[in-house]
User: What shape does this take?
Amino acid sequence: MNDKKLIERIRDHPEGFGLNGTYYPTAMFLTGIDAGRSGGMLRGFTEWLVVRRGECNNLYWHQLVLLDLFPDMRLQGWKDPDHLTPDQHRQAVEHLYSLILEFLDAQSNPRQLGRMYTQYEAMYAHIQG
Assistant: This one.
């Protein structure tokens, strides 16, 4: 099963994978799947999110997904299930799946992926510069 089909299956049947619809456990589950696939499924996801956001930072994708959806969110305590309301958890999980699926489409296009890495490197070269 390819990565996109796997993500769609998890998205469509989270309870079958032991997920309860909250953000942090879902993100950690996907991190585990990525690790089980030797880091290849989400390789470049953080960089893709940074370029998409257009802002250099030192955050990992788990936090960037939240900021993409909730730009004014304070990230301190973001792992705590009470940090988000039930509706925010639902929105965050849906947004996470949407972003990963969009990223997997970009990842499968070598030219698009190359442009993303070029933009990422240019963003950081500018601040080091």
User: Anything to note?
Assistant: The helical segments are 3-12, 23-36, 45-53, 61-69, 86-107, 110-128. Residues 3-128 form one domain.
